[in-house]
Each structure stands twice: as C-alpha cells, then as structure tokens.
Amino acid sequence: MKYIFPLFILVLGTFQPLSAQLKFEREYRLKSREVPPAALEFMQALPFTKKIRWYREEGYQRTSIEAKTKHQSKRYSIEFDTSGQIEDVEVIIKWKNISAETRQLISKQLGQNHQRFRVRKVQIQYTGTPQALREFIAGTSDESRVTIRYELIVKAKTDGQFQRFEYLFSEAGEFIKRALIIDQNSDHLEF
Amino acid sequence: MSFSRRIIIPLGFVLLIGYYGQAQSSYQTGLLPALNVNTKLNRGWSINFKFESRQQLQRGIFGEEHDQDYEYVLSDLALVAGKKIGFDQSLAGGYLMRFRGQDMIHRLIQQFTIVRRYSSFRLAHRIAADQTMSAGASMTLRLRYRLSTEWPLKGQSVDPREFYIKANHEYLNVLQGEDYDLEIRFVPLLGYKFTDSNKTELGVDYRLDSFLQDHPRQRFWLRLIWYRVF
Predict the structure, then answer these.
(1) Contact predicate A21/A179, CB 8 Å
(2) Is 70 exceeded by the pLDDT of residue B48?
(3) Looking at per-residue confidence, does B129 or B10 come out higher?
(4) Nearest-by-CA chain A residue for B225
(5) Numbered residues of chain B with Cβ closer than 8 Å to any chain A Cβ
(6) What is the mean pLDDT of residues A14-25?
(7) Average pLDDT of chain A?
(8) Which residues of B touch A29 (CB under 8 A)?
C-alpha cells in the first residue's frame, strides 16, 4: 500500500511528456454572468454587434474562457485565461489566404511528418498586448503591433493510422508545436 | 439546414406515408434493447459485437382491437470487423445470427461509413448491404442507406456526463425472390455519455414497410442501447 503513491507519481511523471503533445478539450457553454468581468469588459470595448457565445474549455493542463462571434463575415474566437486576461484572438481563414511561400513551407513540414495529410481548418492567431489586440480588431491599427501565427487542424496518415493534429506555425511558416487531437468514438454512428 | 428541419422533414415524410395508409395499416409495438461492444485494435482495425432482442408488446390493425399482446420475437447476435480506410471513412464486414423460435437465420453484412465532424454536430453516412439466408426461404438481399446525426445539448461537442440527441433516418431496399419492398426507418434518440467509452441511448425506432403493396405496416420499438468500448 505504501508504494502506491510513489508509483502514482512515477506513472504521472512518465506520461507527462506524452500528455503535453495531446489535445483534449472539454467545453461548457457559459452564461454572460459566469464570465470573468475583465473578459466581458474587453469584449464590450470591441465593435462586435452579433451575438457572443461564451465557453469554458478544460484541457489536460489548462483551462480557458473563450468567446465566439461573427464580425464582418469572419468567425472570431477570443481566448482568455480564467482571470479574464486576453490570451489570443483567432479568426478562421481559408488555406489559400496564407501566402504561397508560407503555405509551401508548412506543406513541406507536414509532408515530412506524415504519409498523407489534409488541412481541415486554418485559423490566423493574433497575440499581443490587450491594447494592441483591441485596436487591431477595431481596425484602428494594422498588423505591425501584433504577432501573427497560423493554427491548423490537420487530418493525417502516420504509420498507417488516420489521426487529427493541431499544428502551430509562425507567420513565416516555421513549425512551433503540434498536438495529437484525441478524437471521440464514433461507433454509435457507425454501427 | 437547421436542427429542427433536419428532424422534422424526415419525420413528416414518414408520418405522411403512414397517415395515408392508416386505413389498412397494421402496427406492432415493442421493446428493442441492445448491447453494442466495440474493441479498438491496431492500425485502424476494430471489432464490433452486438446483441439485440426484440419483444412485442402489442400488434394489430389501426382502428381495430389489438389482436396480440406480449410475445418474445427474436434475438440477434452480430460480429463485425471494421477497418478505417480514410480520414473519415471505414469499411466493415461481418456475420449476424438471428434466433427466431426454432429457426436460425444467417446474415452476411458489408458496410461503408463516412463520419464527418462539423463545428457543432457530427454527421454519418452509412451504405450497407446484407444477405439473409434461412431454411426453406429464398435469400433476402438488402441495400440500405442511413443518415445519422449527433447533436450535443450543451456546448459544441458531446463530452462525458452530457446528454445529446441522435437521429437516424434510413432507407432499405429489400429484394426476396421477385418481391421488392422499401422500408423506411426514423429513429430519434436521447443519448447520455457517461465516459468516452460508455454511453446509452433511449428513443423510438419507427419502421414503415409494405406501403408499396398498399397495406403498410408500421412498427414502433422502444429502443434502449448501451454502447461500450474496450
């Protein structure tokens, strides 16, 4: 019995590097009154006119608050930490909206990692100071004060297995990180 | 298309056919509990085992006194092997044994499925064929198409300890000897996901057939399924 706790710690330690590469999120819909005030204030200062949906996302290692809305035909996802501090702003774009040179670099990287791949979703990710992000979304400043990255959801065949990955690339197309997405079972839809 | 339209259009279509044929329409109601066990193997292979039992509660002609009460009808045991062949596609094939009274019925099954994930729901297409053999009857061939959808009742995906709505809509072409029939099924279900490998669904399995021959048969099964993944 006395060995159980050290064994648990050992097992946890063994799996930690692995879990860092895994992406599993559980999300709950939040009512506006459940959202941290700082996040609400940030959103209220923006020129969004459409309905804002709030979510709490729980991952393996972190929890975040996310606001989703549509603005000028673009789908926005604004992520905050649990205290309401802005973390990043993501906008869904098309693969072809990325410059040809960057696309080529990203494709080369994906080709090296996987036998086959298909880019299913692309988001442009903006990070920076709250003020810089606010001004950028409001259209009162350009992209020079924010950092741009690309977040991709990729379906890929690796070692004979079909899996989904979340990739993050820099604006220039340099690889930053990737995580294997833990997909839900679909046996109840197949059988 | 909105969620309500996805549900209402097929349901309306099915009920309309049922309504027009109601004068000579027979019905059957009952229970359809099922256990569905799935085991994931290496390299995209999986094995699915299904046990299903059918028990009739009532049978008769609409508008008349029912002519039969509780009766055990049959039990099915099926074993199907599946292989993921693409990002969203799977192929599967297997064998079903049906125990009906003293008779044993054999069925070979082949199916192709596509499961697509959208921002707030999942959609599955299943094209399947089966061949049913039993002593003293000619082989029954069926070609079927099923559309299934899963909608979370909270958030954008179904997480553990959350409810969801699932609906199946299926068309079955049935050929036995020279006789052809079309069966239509509509199955709205309320599901609950305990964990990612443990979920249950409850709903009505509505089946309409024989309407091409002008004497439609409508069957209403109370369906309770338990899905388990090992």
Answers:
(1) yes
(2) yes
(3) B129
(4) A188
(5) 36, 38, 43-44, 46, 48, 50, 80, 82, 84, 86-88, 90, 92, 111, 113, 115, 122, 124, 126, 148, 150, 154-160, 166, 191, 196-197, 199, 201, 225, 227, 229
(6) 55
(7) 86
(8) 154-155
Does A31 contact B at CB distance below 8 Å? no
How high is the ipTM of this complex? 0.86
| Partner-chain contact B155 A184, CB within 8 Å | no
Instruction: Answer whether A55 touches B (CB < 8 Å).
Output: yes
Q: Does A115 touch chain B (CB under 8 A)?
A: no
- Write the residue in B115, B157, B159 that is nearest to A190 by C-beta: B115
Give the number of other Cβ atoms within 10 Å of residue B150's Cβ: 23
A12 lies in a domain? Answer: no
Closest in A27, A118, A187 to B156, CB measured: A27
For B128, half-sphere exposure in the C-beta direction (CA atoms, 13 angstrom radius) is: 27
Report the alpha-carbon distance of residue A30 to residue A37 in Å, rounded: 13
DSSP assignment letter at A171: T
Domain boundaries, position A49? 19-190
Q: How far apart are CA A104 and CA A189, in angstroms?
A: 36
Whether residue B92 and residue A190 make contact (CB cut-off 8 A), yes or no, is yes
pLDDT higher than threshold 60 for residue A9: no
Does residue A13 fall inside a structural domain? no
- Which of residues A125 and B157 earns the better pLDDT score? A125
Rounded to whole angstroms, the Cα distance separating A84 from A78 reads 11
Residue A9 counted as domain residue: no
**What residues of chain A lie within 8 A of the CB of B170, using their CB?**
none
pLDDT at residue B4 tops 70: no
Specify the 3-state DSSP secondary structure of B228. Answer: strand
Could you list the beta-strand ranges (E) of chain B.
26-40, 45-61, 71-84, 89-100, 103-117, 122-134, 137-152, 162-176, 179-195, 198-209, 217-229
Please list every residue in chain A whose beta carbon sits closer than 8 Å to the beta carbon of residue B113. Answer: 189-190
Domain count along chain A: 1
For residue A1, pLDDT over 50 is answered with: no
Residue A92 covered by a domain? yes
- Check residue A43 and give its pLDDT: 93
Q: Is the pLDDT of residue B219 over 60?
A: yes
The predicted pLDDT at position A11 comes to 44
Contacts of A189 in chain B (CB under 8 A): 113, 115, 122, 124, 148, 150, 166
Residues making up chain B, counted from first to last:
230
Q: What CATH number corresponds to the domain at position A27?
A: 3.10.450
CATH architecture of B3-229: Beta Barrel (2.40)
B201-214 pLDDT per residue, tens: 999 999 999 888 87
- Domain boundaries, given as residue ranges, for chain B: 3-229
